[in-house]
Amino acid sequence: MMTTQSTSNQQGMAIGALILAILSLFIPYVGLILAIVALVMAAKVTTPEQRGLIIATKVISWISVIWAILFIILLALGVMSTFV
Known about the structure:
The protein is an all-alpha fold. The chain has helices at residues 4-26, 31-44, 51-83.
């Protein structure tokens, strides 16, 4: 059974991960890094009380990762098309 201190640490980690995931959607160039950090933080949370926050974090982070990769690909194609 977890103590109150470890439960509050888990809650803080879950909220921090969710905040990073949300920020990763709106900050263009570092969004990929923030999303990956949020996924790592979410993986460290083990309390069942934080399950909803962790699911939301994972969904938002993966959307942000896909968005960032798509953005990088389109940016590379756009830059490459100027040289052709």
